[in-house]
Design goal:
This protein is an all-alpha fold and about 90 residues long. It has 4 helices and no strands. Helix content is about 65%, strand content about 0%. The termini are far apart.
């Protein structure tokens, strides 16, 4: 899977592994309200890291590498934005 394909994905898109997904998120794939809440509120970096961990647990090296790369990209973008804000004197919480 390519990094850009992960942009709109969460661990819940890999529903062949419900026990592992529940271990990672603490949410049953059957609990649609909590799944939707996770999808709407979970930070993109955390979503990528959750996919990376799922891939590690199932032994999918390609997906693991793609998710790790995507998370690093998102972290770099966040750090650049935070750096710009700090130069302007904004407080980043």
């Amino acid at each position: 899977m390519k990094t850009k394909e992960l942009k709109n994905k969460t661990v819940f898109d890999f529903s062949d592994y419900p026990a592992i997904i529940e271990e990672i998120t603490g949410i049953s794939i059957k609990d649609s309200d909590r799944v939707e809440y996770y999808k709407k509120t979970c930070h993109p970096i955390n979503k990528a890291r959750d996919i990376e961990y799922l891939a590690y647990k199932i032994g999918d090296k390609q997906l693991e590498a793609a998710a790790a790369s995507f998370a690093v990209k998102l972290e770099k973008e966040r750090d650049e934005e935070n750096g710009k804000a700090m130069k302007k004197g904004y407080i980043i919480d």
